[in-house]
């Protein structure tokens, strides 16, 4: 492939990596990871609410990695409450999983920036070390994509398996019990998915530029080299 086309591919990949780093950073600070509604089951059972009356006992909840907001509704109107994971909810959430998600987000941001820098370096400079060349570009893209997948897996398990929304809704609730009514992942969670796909796309762009994968080596070259060694 001609050099100008390779530069264009590397510039595109570098800009995509930079956009992923900024998008991940924005997602980390956002409260739009999970949106849903919680039902005050205790209040609904007391008055045997059903149909339209049940809406008076359904509140809203949304949260991210550091903070969120819930609207507590038990038939007397909504009462909004802001909360933070650190240190308020640290005792009731799966702290090890939650901290791991935050750490992998940080790693994803760092390696996305590193990948963007090396893509630009390969576009406008002359690679002179392994980590500056194609092998390094595959490495940064692979690490970033893997971190994005781990973030989604860990956070999904925290929400679905450990019932994170219910734990948040029932935080410091002695009288009423809340159950998850609806729950869905919001924009910031899907941003991480898009970033993971973009890093996978970057690896394909490197291959499209004419560079082989690091683990694929030609058998013919090894045979020829061996034959030459036997001659001497």
Please tell me about this protein's structure.
Helix content is 57%, strand content 15%. By secondary structure, it is an alpha+beta fold. It has one domain: Butyryl-CoA Dehydrogenase, subunit A, domain 3 (Up-down Bundle), CATH 1.20.140. It has a five-stranded antiparallel beta sheet. A hairpin with a 4-residue loop joins strand 3 (67-73) and strand 4 (78-84). Helix 1 packs antiparallel against helix 3, helix 1 runs antiparallel to helix 6 (187-208) and helix 3 (95-124) runs antiparallel to helix 4 (134-161). The longest helix has 30 residues, at 95-124. It starts with a helix and ends with a helix. Keywords: Membrane, Signal, Transmembrane, Transmembrane helix. Belongs to the clarin family.
Question: Key terms for this structure?
Answer:
transmembrane helix, signal, 232 residues, 15% strand, membrane, 7 helices, transmembrane, elongated, Butyryl-CoA Dehydrogenase, subunit A, domain 3, five-stranded antiparallel sheet, CLRN1 protein, alpha+beta
Number of domains: 1
| Low-confidence region ranges | 221-232
Number of DSSP E strands: 5
The end-to-end span amounts to: 36 Å
Category by helix and strand content: alpha+beta
Main CATH class = Mainly Alpha
Rg over CA atoms, rounded to whole Å, is: 25 Å
CATH architectural designation: Up-down Bundle
Shape: elongated
What is the name of the CATH topology?
Answer: Butyryl-CoA Dehydrogenase, subunit A, domain 3
Query: What is the helix fraction of residues, given as a range?
Result: 55-70%
Q: How are the strands of the largest sheet arranged?
A: 4-3-2-1-5
Question: What is the count of DSSP helices, taking H or I runs of 4+ residues?
Answer: 7
């Amino acid at each position: 492939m001609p050099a100008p086309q390779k530069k264009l591919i590397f510039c595109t990949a570098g800009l995509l990596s930079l956009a992923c780093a900024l998008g991940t950073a924005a997602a980390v600070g956002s409260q739009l990871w999970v949106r849903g509604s919680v039902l005050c089951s205790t209040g609904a059972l007391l008055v045997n609410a059903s149909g339209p009356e049940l809406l008076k006992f359904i509140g809203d909840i949304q949260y991210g990695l550091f903070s969120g907001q819930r609207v507590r509704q038990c038939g007397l109107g909504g009462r909004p409450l802001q909360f933070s994971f650190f240190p308020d909810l640290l005792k009731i959430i799966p702290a090890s999983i939650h901290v791991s998600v935050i750490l992998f987000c940080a790693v994803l941001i760092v390696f996305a920036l590193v990948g963007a820098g090396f893509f630009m370096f390969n576009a406008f400079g002359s690679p002179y070390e392994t980590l500056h060349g194609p092998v390094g570009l595959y490495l940064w893209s692979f690490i970033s994509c893997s971190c994005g997948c781990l973030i989604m897996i860990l956070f999904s398990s925290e929400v679905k398996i450990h019932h994170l929304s219910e734990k948040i809704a029932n935080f410091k609730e002695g009288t009423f019990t809340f159950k998850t009514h609806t729950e869905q992942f919001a924009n910031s969670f899907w941003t991480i998915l898009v970033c993971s796909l973009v890093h996978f796309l970057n690896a394909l762009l490197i291959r499209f530029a004419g560079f082989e994968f690091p683990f694929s080596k030609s058998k013919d070259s090894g045979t020829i080299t061996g034959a030459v060694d036997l001659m001497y």
